[in-house]
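Re: that backbone. Tokens:
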């Protein structure tokens, strides 16, 4: 049964994955074996795509040039109906042979690197080196490889395959691309979601949620000697930081917190008029994340009151909280059908996969109760997010492309 959007009813989503014997029969078909062989034989082309895409800058909120190039590559791969949505995501659809599930295979366009970063990729034997070559140029290349394998096979999936390159996965992007996909572009249509992110052999089935804020204490400021005796925003910030540093958090469910950025002040002999910190709090558990958020807000208020009470006078500080990003948390069982499918596909590709928990584009569907995993793209990567030492080892990296292909096959079926 399908709904008006053409996807399976939510109650049938756990039936997406066929049993191992059916999967084994499918991958024994000559046409499927030919697809797998083609992926291996064209891995050099996949690596070339990985390098070419990576040498197009895609700093946060400026993914447009890379998106345009990627849309062209999807069209050249034979994917139908390639478009760029209002959020900036690139979307291409490969129609199926019947009313089966809608499966998304995705990677993200953006990097963590600011404008002006040298994105040249160098090669030394099997080793590629360059900013973003792992995260997530590898994922983008794998998605292209899978698209080419399907269009070149003469086969059609049982439902619809949608190939997506998202914006805003990193940092302050706050998953804006994948949010738009699920809230607007393909709302209530997606039955299963696969993200390919980075290198290696992990399956991310747990969504680590995060609350990220910038907190700014404010006051009139003044001369450090002449105006002494008024509340100091920097001191209030220090009080808050000291209390936050002493938070006691559980290890199960794991909860973390970190103050990563400090700002404020104009000179050593001035009472600053503002002082700010940026904080990141994370957990797999929604309730635990909400609990530390409440502790955090209480600490901010106490710090304000303590600093204001410290000094006599008419001057009082204030503070405000700016939301940098809220990423929802969630966890799927290790035996969830989509997790079993990812393990089954990995084994068939010769990959010894491990289960993992992280913050990725899959956070959004997992939080909505939609089957989703993020898989690595094969090969071996080091130094992700470093402009100087991010590297990708291409040795047997074709297995990552085969893994992604087999997972689309397991979830969508084949005509």
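Recovered sequence:
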């Amino acid at each position: 049964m399908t709904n008006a959007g053409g996807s399976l009813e939510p109650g049938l989503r756990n039936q997406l994955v066929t049993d191992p014997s059916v999967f084994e029969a499918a991958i024994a078909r000559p046409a499927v074996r030919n697809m797998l062989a083609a992926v291996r034989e064209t891995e050099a082309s996949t690596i070339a795509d990985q390098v070419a895409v990576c040498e197009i800058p895609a700093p946060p909120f400026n993914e447009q040039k890379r998106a345009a190039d990627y849309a062209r590559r999807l069209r050249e791969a034979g994917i139908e109906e390639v478009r760029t949505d209002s959020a900036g995501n690139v979307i291409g659809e490969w129609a199926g042979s019947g009313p089966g599930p809608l499966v998304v295979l995705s990677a993200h366009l953006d990097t963590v690197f600011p404008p002006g970063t040298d994105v040249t990729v160098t090669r030394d034997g099997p080793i590629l080196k360059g900013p973003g070559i792992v995260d997530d140029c590898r994922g983008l290349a794998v998605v292209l490889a899978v698209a080419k394998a399907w269009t070149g096979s003469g086969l059609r999936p049982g439902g619809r395959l949608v190939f997506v390159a998202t914006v805003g996965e990193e940092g302050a992007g706050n998953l804006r691309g994948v949010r738009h996909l699920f809230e607007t572009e393909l709302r209530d249509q997606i039955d299963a979601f696969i993200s390919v992110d980075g290198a290696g052999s992990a399956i991310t089935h747990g969504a680590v949620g995060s609350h990220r804020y910038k907190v700014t204490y404010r006051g009139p400021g003044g001369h450090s000697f002449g105006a002494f005796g008024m509340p100091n925003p920097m001191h209030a910030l220090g009080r808050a930081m000291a209390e936050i540093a002493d938070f006691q958090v559980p290890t199960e469910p794991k909860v973390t917190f970190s103050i990563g950025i400090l700002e404020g002040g104009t000179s050593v002999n001035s009472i600053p008029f503002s002082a700010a910190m940026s904080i990141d709090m994370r957990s797999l558990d929604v309730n635990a994340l909400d609990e530390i958020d409440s502790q955090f807000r209480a600490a901010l208020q106490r710090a304000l009151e303590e600093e204001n009470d410290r000094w006599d006078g008419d001057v009082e500080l204030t503070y405000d909280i700016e939301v940098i990003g809220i990423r929802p948390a969630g966890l799927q069982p290790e035996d969830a059908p989509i997790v079993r499918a990812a393990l089954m596909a990995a084994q068939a590709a010769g990959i010894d996969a491990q289960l993992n928990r992280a913050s990725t584009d899959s956070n959004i569907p997992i939080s909505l109760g939609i089957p989703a995993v993020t898989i690595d793209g094969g090969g071996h990567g080091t130094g992700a997010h470093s402009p100087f030492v991010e590297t990708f080892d291409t040795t047997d990296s074709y297995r990552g492309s085969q893994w992604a292909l087999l997972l689309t096959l397991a979830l969508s079926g084949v005509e």
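The longest helix spans residues 286-310. Residues 209-327 form a domain with the Alpha-Beta Plaits fold (CATH 3.30.70.360).
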